[in-house]
Specification:
Blueprint: E1 14-18, H1 21-38, H2 43-46, E2 55-60, E3 66-73, H3 79-82, E4 88-96, H4 105-119, E5 124-130, H5 134-139, E6 143-151, E7 154-162
Parallel strand pairs: 4-5
Antiparallel strand pairs: 1-2, 2-3, 3-4, 5-7, 6-7
């Protein structure tokens, strides 16, 4: 995946897929800070056993300091989140450190995850958004559907976005 930068002056954070152990650990550390420490989600729920089969995306400062992360699940591992449709990916675990919020990092991470999905031939993306984040995802083209539900004690709604076709070779 090519590096993605948020809109602005071009000096923003780099967003990239990570596969090396240090990169994946940086993603898990961001999630630990946001979901476990800040939001009170138990580690048993946060670390669901799917991280070794996920595509991890990390946003870092120019100096390499992690700022945010998200993951893409696709194929059989995502079936319970996508209605079993192999053409649909599941965006999840989107987290931006408190000190980096409001800088466009979340949107850049979503674009990076969507680009990774398109590269894998996926045609749509599903996610479960915390209800306070619905407007954020709506601005990025996602539409809510179905009733509100609790996940880890936090209110969520299901959302979907159709992805653009990959560019012709």
């Amino acid at each position: 995946m090519s590096r993605v930068r948020p809109a602005g002056d071009g000096a923003g954070p780099l967003v990239r897929v990570v596969t090396d152990p240090a990169g994946v650990e940086a993603c898990l550390a961001v999630r630990r800070e946001v979901f476990v420490h800040e939001q009170g989600v138990s580690e048993d729920l946060e670390y669901d056993g799917l991280d070794d089969r996920a595509v991890h995306v990390l946003a870092v400062r120019a100096d390499g300091t992690p700022l945010g992360t998200g993951r893409l699940l696709h194929g059989p591992v995502a079936a319970d989140r996508t209605g079993g449709d192999p053409r649909v990916g599941a965006l999840g675990r989107l987290a931006v450190l408190k000190s980096a919020r409001g800088l466009g990092i979340g949107a850049a991470l979503v674009r990076g995850i969507e680009a990774a999905a398109v590269e894998r031939g996926l045609t749509a993306m599903d996610l479960h958004a915390q209800t306070h984040a619905l407007a954020f995802y709506e601005r990025l083209g996602y539409a809510a559907h179905g009733p509100e539900f609790l996940d880890a004690g936090i209110a969520h709604r299901a959302m979907r976005k159709e992805l653009p076709a990959p560019p012709a070779p």
